[in-house]
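[step 3/7] fold_predict: job queued, chain A
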Amino acid sequence: MNTDSPEPPASTTPDIVRPRWLTVSFLAQGTILFAASLSVVKKLVAVGVENFIGSHNPISYCNVLFAGNLVAAVTFAAMFPRDLAPRKIGTVETKQWFLIALVALLEGAIGPTFIFLALMEISVASIFLIESVKIPLVLLIAWLVFGERANSAAVAGATLATIGIVAMVAIRAVLDPMEETVFGGIGAGEVKVFIASAAYVVATQ
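[step 4/7] structure written:
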């Protein structure tokens, strides 16, 4: 008599395997869109500064954040309507709601806030370059939290990114000695970008 328990039926849902070039293409498009969005926000800030209403900037950060999140919500609803079905939302557990709220706070509020503040102090190019600190941060968190070990190519890339960031911050400190600094000479704008990058990295892990 066979006492072995029956094996569970194999899943009939095929795994989605995308070509590598398509994944790289998505990443490249996301990078371009992020860089373009920084330029647009920087321009909006400049327009607001030039057109004060009384003593207030009409293009406040709150307005920009609200408009950006509203567009993001509409886009998400259009792309993933099934995920917003009441039946599916009802299956989300309390712990998952907490994690969703934490991600929304980090990536939807804290990160954009510090990027917006940094835009008022340093250039878009500087922000975009300093944000490459995400590379070593992702590898570090993946190792500390998940025990993942990066290959030599990833470590080499993270090392080069870190060296480039340190060099850029040091050069900026020499060329602009009058800039407001914190933490032993690091510019306040750079620190704000570091905080935003850390918030984005933690939210995506």
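[step 5/7] annotate
Residues 20-50 form the longest helix (31 residues).
The beta strands are 181-182, 186-187.
exit 0
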